[in-house]
Design goal:
The complex is a heterodimer of chains A (81) and B (355). Chain A has 81 residues and is α+β, with helices and mostly antiparallel strands. Chain A is built from 1 helix and 5 strands, in the order E-H-E-E-E-E. In chain B, helix 5 packs antiparallel against helix 6, helix 6 packs parallel to helix 11 and helix 12 crosses helix 13. Classes of the chains: A alpha+beta (81), B mainly alpha (355).
């Protein structure tokens, strides 16, 4: 399993994403967005998965990064970010 | 930046901000009002003639500095990002009623901390109300409350609010006859630190708040939602620095009666700050945070700040604002209406998770 963090345009987006992660059997928890990822003080979801799901049917995901060797590696950014 | 470093940074920033607040009082700002976002926006509204309460009229450079300081740092860090379009009118109304709550209590969450640090026991009741209000907001957040997402906007849109602040600074420096200034002995508006010192203090606080994301509401919200104390460390650090600074400078006066720019009506101190905490939790940040985000290019926050400005003018034009003598009947009615309106907004913007 790999570790990821997804940030969102709204708190609700994080709530829904976490619920869907758990429904897929992927461990996920909500937490404040790390400063290194954004100057926003919103909510993100830290989750684990074999491979991150980058489809965004609700248009809520701002970005997804993979955590590897203590660094954030961008794997998805919304087009208008 | 790892979490430990983030916590150390916000602790240091909080201490610096608390010391700056104490210094501003020594330099001329009203007691326990080194910073007060609500009071200073209200004073600015008065300075511009949006209300005619003669005791509170002065374009406060601290507000201008916070916005421009946050903007400068966000530009330097490549974090200036113009976005908006998230339930704009709803945010305006929330900003309006947050100001109604602030002027019932006589201070924003920032000044609430400074008042506690100065020994004002009335602010402890405000803090209790503030926490209860945030818990109400968090309840709706956990049920699916959202003001919907933001969208990217043109650069020019994000520059408007900082440009308006820069224009206010030009007006203050030029002091044309159509501006209003409270006389030196005419009330809180007449008490202020030298302009350049106030501006510098605002720039530093704006920069620090942008870097650390300091937020009075976010601290309690994150502690409740995630058991994450990071932001509340900043809150505590401001309190500690203000408390020690006031002790050292002889400005610590514990008690309830006779506190500067404060009243002793516990119920309405509580309810005023409940409205503030409730509204700010739904907005996603305290008035300070709204100014900082507006400086970063967030036009939703800029509109919220305009809601605060408009609210302050209404409060003084319609006799809603409290004074040292206590709250007004009009103010009490407005706070109750505010709690009802905020609840309606919360209910209307809460959706089931699966929709």
């Amino acid at each position: 399993m790999r570790s990821y963090i997804a940030t969102f345009y709204s708190h609700f987006g994080a709530v829904r994403f976490r619920r869907e992660c758990l429904a897929r059997g992927n461990p996920a928890k909500m937490m404040p967005v790390p400063r290194a990822l954004s100057s926003s003080c919103g909510t993100c979801v830290a989750f684990e998965a074999e491979e991150a799901e980058t489809e965004d049917p609700y248009g809520e995901i701002e970005q997804i990064v993979e955590i590897a060797d203590g660094k954030y590696i961008p794997i998805y950014k919304a087009e208008n970010l | 930046m790892d979490i430990k470093k983030e916590r150390i940074m916000i602790l240091a920033a909080g201490l610096v901000i608390g010391v700056i607040a104490v210094v501003l009082v020594l330099a001329g700002n009203p007691a326990n009002m080194g910073f007060c976002i609500a009071c200073f926006i209200r004073d600015t509204a008065g300075g511009l003639g949006l209300h005619r309460a003669e005791a509170v009229q002065y374009i406060r450079p601290e507000i201008i500095g916070i916005v421009l300081g946050a903007m400068a740092l966000s530009l330097g860090r490549k974090e200036f990002s113009v976005r908006g379009g998230s339930s704009v009118m709803t945010r305006f109304i929330l900003g309006f009623f947050v100001m109604v709550g602030c002027l019932m209590f006589l201070g924003c969450p920032f000044r609430m901390i400074l008042r506690i640090g100065g020994g004002d026991g009335n602010a402890l009741l405000g803090l209790a109300g503030f926490v209860c209000g945030i818990l109400c907001g968090v309840l709706f957040l956990s049920k699916g409350y959202s003001l919907k997402r933001t969208y990217r906007q043109p650069l020019s849109e994000g520059l408007v609010f900082p440009a308006v602040q820069a224009a206010f600074l030009v007006l203050l420096v030029m002091a044309p006859a159509f501006l209003f200034f409270t006389a030196a002995d005419g009330g809180p508006g007449g008490k202020h630190a030298p302009m350049l010192l106030s501006l510098a203090a605002g720039l530093i606080v704006g920069g620090l708040a942008q870097y650390t994301r300091l937020c009075m509401v976010g601290g309690i919200r994150d502690l409740v939602l995630f058991r994450e104390p990071k932001l509340i460390i900043g809150f505590a650090a401001i309190l500690a620095a203000a408390f020690l600074g006031n002790l050292v400078t002889g400005n610590f006066h514990p008690g309830f009666a006779g506190q500067a720019v404060a009243h002793t009506d516990g119920l309405w101190n509580f309810l005023g700050m409940l409205l503030v905490g409730y509204g700010c939790a739904l907005l996603g940040g305290c008035p300070l945070r709204q100014l900082v985000m507006a400086g970063e290019g967030n036009t939703d926050s800029a509109v919220t700040a305009l809601g605060l400005l408009t609210g302050s003018a209404f409060c003084h034009n319609f006799g809603l604002a409290s004074s040292g003598a206590g709250p007004t009947e009009n103010g009490k009615i407005a706070v109750v209406i505010g709690i009802v309106v905020v609840t309606v907004i919360a209910l209307m913007n809460t959706r089931k998770e699966n929709k």
